[in-house]
Task: inverse folding
């Protein structure tokens, strides 16, 4: 919105307002705006959640140390969504289709998560929305986004699948394969982030790191010179997504202020499902689905641990891990919660750096 205002002021009043047309500045301002919104609104939202008794319902089959967290305000992910949406609407070009798509997917997945969280609290159990209903609505939103991306594609490069570290290994996807891939990336990332969100601050820092890295990819992908130099697909308009990524970084850091151990508020499904879907959608837009798989390795590990645990128990009657997702396994081995959290953060930093290295090692 402010892009249009600054353009008007540049033409009619002072050319210096043209500085707000620069993507890098708007991404920085978007991050700072989202950060300040989170810090200002955070205490008010936490107070409101406590007042309305929106407390976390803790599973009785989880680690015993988590029982003390019962009653901690949840649904704090709504704070992130408010900050991201407000900052994106202020600093991005709202005529850009990619911005509108990723923002819509984020908010709709957030709505699904909000309903899930609300049912958990109102019904007094930890199950919330049934798995079938949750996956149905997630699938509907993901497929809708995929079809819109196909129908609005302006060049074949928007449906190319590139392989990291290999300069000339590019697969040209058919529309149906693209839709299927997009569905799995969005829904898969959304649920993987949700599985990771089990300890104070565990999920939000990897989200921030991956979002920042995807912002770099978005900027390069949307710049014809950088895309050509780095041998990555050039997608017209993808650069504008860097503003959204900046807003995610700022909002995530602001939320971490309250979510760091011991947490004053939990993200809940409203945040985890939405932010995971946002990462998946951005990765699809900038054609870096496989790089997301690398940078989001912590999310992948957590998801795989659950799959292996369930498969092993059903097939052999034995468990591979003491408890899944993986972070609970280390808790039950005696690792203090902060140690698990920080070590998972360190792993994410390394994986994000490897992901960024794919820009040059090709």
Result:
């Amino acid at each position: 919105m402010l892009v249009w205002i600054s353009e008007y002021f540049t033409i009619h009043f002072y050319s210096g307002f043209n500085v707000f047309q620069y993507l890098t500045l708007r991404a920085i301002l978007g991050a700072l705006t989202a950060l300040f919104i989170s810090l200002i609104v955070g205490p008010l939202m936490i107070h409101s959640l406590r007042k309305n008794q929106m407390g976390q319902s803790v599973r009785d089959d989880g680690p015993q140390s988590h029982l003390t967290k019962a009653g901690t305000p949840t649904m704090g992910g709504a704070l992130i969504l408010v900050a991201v949406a407000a900052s994106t609407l202020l600093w991005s070009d709202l005529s850009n289709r990619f911005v509108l798509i990723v923002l819509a997917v984020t908010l709709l997945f957030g709505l699904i998560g909000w309903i899930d969280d609300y049912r958990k609290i109102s019904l007094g159990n930890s199950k919330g929305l049934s798995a079938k209903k949750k996956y149905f609505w997630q699938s509907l939103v993901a497929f809708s986004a995929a079809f819109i991306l196909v129908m609005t594609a302006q060049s074949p490069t928007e449906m190319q699948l590139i392989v990291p570290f290999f300069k000339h290994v590019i697969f040209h996807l058919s529309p149906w394969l693209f839709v299927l891939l997009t569905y799995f990336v969005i829904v898969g990332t959304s649920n993987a982030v949700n599985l990771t969100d089990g300890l104070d601050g565990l999920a939000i820092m990897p989200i921030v790191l991956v979002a920042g890295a995807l912002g770099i990819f978005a900027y390069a992908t949307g710049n014809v010179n950088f895309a050509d130099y780095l041998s990555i697909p050039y997608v017209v308009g993808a650069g504008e997504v860097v503003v959204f990524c900046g807003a995610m970084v700022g909002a995530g850091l602001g939320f971490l202020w309250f979510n760091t151990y011991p947490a004053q508020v939990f993200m809940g499904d409203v945040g985890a499902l939405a932010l995971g879907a946002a990462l998946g959608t951005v990765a699809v837009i900038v054609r870096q689905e496989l790089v997301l798989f690398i940078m989001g390795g912590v999310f992948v590990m957590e998801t795989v641990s659950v799959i292996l645990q369930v498969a092993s128990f059903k097939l052999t009657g034995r468990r591979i891990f003491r408890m899944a997702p993986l972070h609970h396994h280390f808790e039950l081995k005696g690792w203090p919660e902060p140690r698990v959290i920080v070590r998972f953060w360190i792993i994410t930093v390394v994986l994000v750096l490897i992901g960024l290295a794919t820009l040059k090692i090709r």
Summary: The mean pLDDT is 88.
